[in-house]
Design brief:
Mean pLDDT: 83
CATH topology of the largest domain: Alpha/beta knot
Helix content: 25-40%
CATH class of the largest domain: Alpha Beta
CATH superfamily of the largest domain: SPOUT methyltransferase, trefoil knot domain
Order of helices and strands: HEHEHHEHEEHEHHEHEEEHEH
Low-confidence stretches: 5-52
Distance between the termini: 18 Å
CATH architecture of the largest domain: 3-Layer(aba) Sandwich
Number of helices: 11
Largest sheet: 7 strands, parallel
């Protein structure tokens, strides 16, 4: 892939994608991104929904994950995070070929409290329309990962997702689900003016919030600088005059995809600290651009596609 047209900024021309970094990168942008530029943005469109989740019915935990697949994976990888498992007794007593019966066996082996609950109770806990399959796991408070935990990779370059002010918990949950399914090593979220990992996020992510490292940071701009020091290329996924087609980004390199809130996108200060800008091409634009969770899925899929095709 040829060199990308550089964007003028305080640091001078940007390097060709995948090429060597200059020794002198010039002045580093380090203002706190909670400053006046942030406050002057006004309300975010995706903040229209209530920030607080509806309280869960009383139970032995603060958050729930439901469904045979997510609960089974959680018991296999992080049983210490599960406080109790509620099951439909009509499925719990079946043969071990039933995944819910297998979950009962795994929970007993791990010393996790098991309780029978009827279908209406499980329906109420999981939420309207949720496919819980007769099993719900209760979890304690969420524990965020250290940023360094996201750098651990399994035989391939790092792939991270950083979210700049995504305030809708449903969008966050959907992004976490896609990030987990498409091989990302973790997700970075700010600790202010952004959705945090709550019960609603855990539900929307189908349990991916419990299986994927999520780091919470005080200053996204400084965090992006740290990622640069670790050799990751920062790619802002939003439309600008100099943005490349997402397929032109070399997905085989260590990357951090940066996505912003709906309507406002990646903030200028954050975008300025990214190495490249990428856009997802659309056939039509009469209804606006992609929802941020859809954009994240498409961008992650493109990176995954490239890695699989070149492996």
């Amino acid at each position: 892939m040829g060199p990308r047209t550089p964007r003028p900024d305080e640091r001078g021309p940007r390097p060709a994608f995948g090429g060597p970094r200059p020794d002198d990168r010039g002045a580093r942008v380090t203002p706190d991104d909670r400053g006046a530029a942030t406050e002057a943005r006004g309300p975010r469109p995706d903040a229209e929904r209530p920030r607080r989740d509806a309280p869960l019915p009383s139970g032995p935990g603060e958050r729930v994950v439901y469904g045979a697949g997510p609960v089974g994976e959680l018991l296999a990888r992080k049983p210490q995070s599960v406080r109790a498992v509620w099951v439909d007794p009509r499925r719990a007593d079946r043969t071990t070929s039933d995944p819910v019966a297998a979950i009962v066996i795994a929970a007993r082996a791990a010393g996790i409290k098991l309780e029978d609950r009827d279908r209406p109770t499980l329906d109420r806990i999981a939420g309207e329309g949720a496919l819980h399959q007769g099993v719900v796991a209760w979890l304690g408070p969420f524990v965020y990962a250290d940023l360094n935990d996201l750098m651990t990779t399994e035989g391939e370059p790092a792939l991270l997702v950083a979210l700049d002010g995504v305030e809708d918990p449903r969008n966050l949950g959907a992004i976490l689900r896609s990030a987990y399914l498409l091989g990302a090593g973790g997700v970075i979220i700010p600790d202010h003016r952004a959705a945090q990992v709550t019960s609603l996020v855990a539900k929307t992510s189908a349990g991916a919030s419990e299986l994927l490292p999520i780091a919470q940071v005080g200053n996204l701009v400084r965090t992006l600088d740290e990622l640069r020091e670790h050799g990751l290329w920062r790619v802002a996924v939003h439309a600008t005059e100099t943005a490349q087609d997402i397929s032109a980004i070399d997905g085989t390199l260590g990357l951090c995809l940066v996505l912003g809130a709906e309507g406002t996108g990646v903030r200028p200060l954050v975008a300025k600290n990214c190495d490249f800008h990428a856009v997802i091409p659309m056939a039509r634009s009469a209804v606006g651009s992609f929802n941020v969770s859809v954009a994240a899925s498409l961008a992650l899929y493109e990176i995954r596609r490239q890695r699989l095709s070149r492996s």
